[in-house]
Amino acid sequence: MTMTIGLAGKPNAGKSTFFKAATMAEVDIANYPFTTIDANRGITYVRTTCPCIEREKRCGNCEDGIRFVPIEIIDVAGLVPDAHQGRGLGNAFLDELSQAQAIIHVIDASGATDIEGNPGDIGSHDPLEDVDFLNREITMWMKGILCRNWERLARKIKAENLKVEEAIANQLMGAGVCEEHVNIAIDQLGKREYIKWEDEDMCQLCEYIRLLSKPVIIAANKLDVAPPENVENLEKLEIIVVPTSAAAELAIRNAASTGAIDYKPGDEDFAIEGSDLSEKQIKGLEKLKNFVVSRKPHGCGVQECINRAVFDQLDLIVVYPVEDEGHWTDKKGRMLPDAYLVKKGSTAHELAYKVHTDIGDRFLYAVDGRTRMRLGDKYELKDGDVIKIVSTAK
């Protein structure tokens, strides 16, 4: 598992509630700034349809044909303006985010917290003001890393005839930036003569790098109490915005964990099943049920948010490598034991390397588990593919 999603946002926006709902991990949730000091790390899942529904029997690795593929999620310290200069717990926040491939920005859509996360009345703050400052903090953090030794680095690029994109990528490697990100960003900047870059150019370059290396989607949280116009204004933004109620999702998952309801993360409805529930508990569950049903097909939004970060923002698909293309099993006879998240456009040969380096090095061909057709090394994988890799590796 190499996929990591970061949860970011100001204090009291609901990040820790979102994290707990997504992972069912034990974390502190409180109505005061910086409840989270050390980053919480956990495992959450993207939801997809398992190919075994095409067969007579289930694989044993899904729930009624729903496959949950694990990814890591990090809930980092709350962000305040000028975090890149060390305000609040800014440095810790930014350092933790360096490991994330994508960021879910949890915003208090109810407008009941100010720009620094201090509680107020519902509607007292415009959540649109919270959108841009996270992006600015990440951009300025990257700029700070890059400019720290820029003069020395520029001289080294010139003296040693280095590629500027390689040198910058090395400088920003700790922030999760690769050479491809930098190369595209420089093209977008439109200025290859790095010696002539001014401060404004450096800011713009780092903004482009941020967009490529740390794509952000918005979780418009506290949907259950948010003024409708706040949510509508956020949804008009030209980025992915998912209305969410992390508190409702957490309550539902807690109920499911006790057997009171039948619910899988991302379901559009649930059945109340507990036989020893009090009248008060039943009324509470019915209220949650009505909320979920009213939000079809989105539900509480937490699972949708995770799925959209992985499938839409990062453009990934799920594929299933097997040993036996007829039975879709591994050497031990386990059906569809593994599910891999790979970039859309990845090839069968690239999948072989993900399974094992030796298999990639000694790749011969692949076989489509559905059609039994032989596939070449350049075959472009499709979402849900069941693939056998044939190689000379032992």
UniProtKB/TrEMBL annotation:
Assigned keywords, A-Z: Nucleotide-binding
A Pfam family this chain is assigned to: MMR_HSR1
GO molecular function, one term: GTP binding
Organism superkingdom: Archaea
PROSITE patterns (alphabetical): G_OBG (PS51710)
Domain OBG-type G: 3-264
InterPro entries: Beta-grasp_dom_sf, G_OBG, GTP-bd, P-loop_NTPase, TGS, TGS-like, YGR210-like_G4
Keyword RNA-binding: no
GO cellular component, one term: cytoplasm
Family (UniProt): Belongs to the RelA/SpoT family.
The protein's name in its UniProt record: GTP-binding uncharacterized protein TIGR00650
Organism of this sequence: Methanohalophilus euhalobius
The organism's taxonomic lineage, starting at the top: Archaea, Methanobacteriati, Methanobacteriota, Stenosarchaea group, Methanomicrobia
